[in-house]
Amino acid sequence: MTGSGRRAATLVLAVGLGLTACGGDDGGTETPTATDSTSSSAADTGSSAPASPGSSAPAETEAVTVTAVDFDFELSEDSYSAGTYTFEVTNTGTMPHDFIVERDGADVAGTQVLEPGASETIEVTLEEGDYSFYCGVGQHRANGMETAVTVTA
Predict the structure, then answer these.
(1) Which of 28, 52, 104, 130 is least enclosed by beta carbons within 10 angstroms?
(2) For the range 64-72, what are the long-range contacts, defined as Cβ-Cβ under 8 Å and sequence gap of 24 or more?
(3) CA-CA distance, 135 to 144, in Å (whole number)?
(4) Sorting pLDDT into bands at 50, 70 and 90, what band is 60?
(5) In the beta sheet, which residues pair with residue 139?
(6) Closest to 49 (Cα-Cα) out of 32, 63, 61
(7) What angle do CA 122, 151, 137 make, to 5 degrees?
(8) For residue 35, is pLDDT > 70?
(9) In whole angstroms, how far apart are CA 92 and each of 16, 72, 116, 121, 142?
(10) What is the pLDDT of residues 96-111, one digit of tens each?
């Protein structure tokens, strides 16, 4: 191999290793992601996205304010119809919390762990059925940080 061929091979190898090193942290605690997530209060509220690829009309998205306090969620809505929701989650408690949406024992969406004072917005489409909104940090769910929700048609 010539000198320039070795340099090119070394460059390709270095770029490949760099991209691999920039991958996500797979630290063992997997937090599900939603279709869209923005941290802080700078969420883009001026646009709407189609409900699914190929749909001709934009989906109606309903905003729900979620306040995480120590061992409780305060939700701005208490009834849900099938559709797309934007959950604006703010941790006003003194401990870290997250907000997970679960259906049939499987997590379908959720925030990252939010430190006190932090916020994150997630968008999730809820279908008819039973859901749980819970905090997955430590024993928070076992201590009552869970809300059962029934989504109607």
Answers:
(1) 28
(2) 64/88, 65/90, 66/90, 66/99, 66/133, 67/92, 68/92, 68/93, 68/97, 68/99, 68/114, 68/135, 68/145, 69/93, 70/94, 70/95, 71/140, 71/143, 71/144, 71/145, 72/144, 72/145
(3) 9
(4) confident
(5) none
(6) 61
(7) 45
(8) no
(9) 42, 11, 6, 15, 20
(10) 999 999 999 999 999 9
In angstroms, rounded to a whole number, what is the distance separating the alpha carbons of residues 109 and 102?
A: 7
Q: Give the span between the Cα atoms of 79 and 85, in whole angstroms.
A: 12
Residue 69 has pLDDT above 60, yes or no: yes
Cβ burial of 89 (10 Å; 0-12, 13-18, 19+) is buried
Between CA 89 and CA 82 the distance in angstroms is 20
**Predicted local confidence at residue 45, as pLDDT:** 36
Question: The tokens of 104 are what?
Answer: 């049939």
**pTM > 0.70:** no
Q: Tell me, letter by letter, the H, E, C secondary structure of 136-151.
A: CCCCCCCCCCEEEEEE
The H or E element containing residue 39 is strand 36-39
Distance CA 89, CA 66 (A): 5
